[in-house]
Amino acid sequence: MFGIEHSGVEPDLVSVAKSLGGGFPISGVIGRADLMDSVPPGGLGGTYAGAPLACAAALAVLDIIEEEKLIDRANTMGERLKARINGWHKRKDILPV
C-alpha cells in the first residue's frame, strides 16, 4: 500500500492523510510500538481526532482497497508500465534526452 514496501526501508513513522478518508478530513500516524507507546494519551490527537464520519469513510476506503484488490491491480499495472518503458530503448524513433 505504501512506496516504502518496495524500497527495503523500514521507517520509524509513516503519516497517512487525505487519500485515506476519501475526501473527508482524517490523518494518522503508523509507527513502531516503542515510539507509539512513548506518547502520552491524547498526545497524537489533533483537529481531526475522533470524527466519526471521517473514521467511517477511512474504514470504507480500506475495505474497498482490500475487496477490489487494488494493491494487486496497481502492482500488475506497474509491471506492465515498467515493461513498456524499458522496451522504449529499442525504438529508433525516440531520441535520448
UniProtKB/TrEMBL annotation:
<keyword id="KW-0032">Aminotransferase</keyword>
<comment type="similarity">
    <text>Belongs to the class-III pyridoxal-phosphate-dependent aminotransferase family.</text>
</comment>
<dbReference type="InterPro" id="IPR015421">
    <property type="entry name" value="PyrdxlP-dep_Trfase_major"/>
</dbReference>
<dbReference type="InterPro" id="IPR050103">
    <property type="entry name" value="Class-III_PLP-dep_AT"/>
</dbReference>
<protein>
    <submittedName>
        <fullName>4-aminobutyrate aminotransferase</fullName>
        <ecNumber>2.6.1.19</ecNumber>
    </submittedName>
</protein>
<dbReference type="GO" id="GO:0042802">
    <property type="term" value="F:identical protein binding"/>
</dbReference>
<dbReference type="InterPro" id="IPR015424">
    <property type="entry name" value="PyrdxlP-dep_Trfase"/>
</dbReference>
<keyword id="KW-0663">Pyridoxal phosphate</keyword>
<keyword id="KW-0808">Transferase</keyword>
<dbReference type="GO" id="GO:0034386">
    <property type="term" value="F:4-aminobutyrate:2-oxoglutarate transaminase activity"/>
</dbReference>
<dbReference type="Pfam" id="PF00202">
    <property type="entry name" value="Aminotran_3"/>
</dbReference>
<dbReference type="GO" id="GO:0030170">
    <property type="term" value="F:pyridoxal phosphate binding"/>
</dbReference>
<dbReference type="InterPro" id="IPR015422">
    <property type="entry name" value="PyrdxlP-dep_Trfase_small"/>
</dbReference>
<dbReference type="InterPro" id="IPR005814">
    <property type="entry name" value="Aminotrans_3"/>
</dbReference>
